[in-house]
Amino acid sequence: MSAPTTHLTELTVRGYEIDALGHVRHTVYLDYAEHARWESLRAAGLSAQTLLTDGVMPIMLETTISYRRELRYDDQVTVGCEFEWGHGKTARITQPLTRLEDGTVAAEVRSVSGLLNLATRKLVADPLDRLRTLATVPEILGL
């Protein structure tokens, strides 16, 4: 298997994402991570419509956030998305959130994800093969 590839999504912290302390609300980090995962899938040629047409959809099974530094209004941020595929039904995803201004890692989101068969409501046995077949640029996902 090839070395993992990190896809980067850039965003700007918006005013409505700030809490009373002046930094990004805790749940917004999950939104940033979700957005970056979908951007990674889209860049690989796996739009939501492509996945739905094939009868599958990625699902999150576990998510952990490690907060390291504050993000504040108008900060420019990159959200990485690195997929680590094993031999089973799941993948691990590591997503550092980094301030562009100074390279500080503000947080890291780590997740376990699977690919749900929408007809059977069970995890796809070989998600690597299924996604590799559907993707137009599978190397973005480390496939």
How many helix segments?
A: 3
- What low-confidence regions span 5 or more consecutive residues with pLDDT below 50? none
Rg, Å, rounded: 16 Å
CATH architecture verdict: Roll
Element pattern in H and E: EHHEEEEEH
Globular, elongated, flat, extended or rod-shaped: what is the shape? elongated
Number of domains: 1
Portion of residues within helices: 10-25%
Find the CATH superfamily. Hotdog Thioesterase
* Major beta-sheet overview: 6 strands, antiparallel
Distance between the termini: 8 Å
| Total beta-strand segments | 6
Question: Can you tell me the CATH topology?
Answer: Thiol Ester Dehydrase, Chain A
CATH class: Alpha Beta
The amount of beta strand, in percent, is 35-45%
The assigned structural class equals alpha+beta
Could you report the average pLDDT, rounded to the nearest whole number?
Answer: 95
Keywords: Hydrolase
EC number: 3.1.2.-
Protein name: Acyl-CoA thioester hydrolase
GO molecular function, one term: hydrolase activity
Name the features.
143 residues, hydrolase, 6 strands, HotDog_dom_sf, single chain, hydrolase activity, Thiol Ester Dehydrase, Chain A, alpha+beta, 4-hydroxybenzoyl-CoA_TE
Describe this structure in words.
It is a single chain. This protein has 143 residues and is of the alpha+beta class. The chain has a single domain (6-141), classed as Thiol Ester Dehydrase, Chain A (Roll), CATH 3.10.129.10. Helix content is 23%, strand content 38%. The chain is built from three helices and six strands; from the N terminus they run βααβββββα. The protein has helices spanning 26-43, 48-54, 127-134, and strands spanning 6-12, 56-67, 76-85, 90-99, 105-117, 122-123. Strands 1, 2, 3, 4, 5 and 6 form a six-stranded antiparallel β-sheet that branches. β5 (105-117) and β6 (122-123) form a beta hairpin. The mean pLDDT is 95.
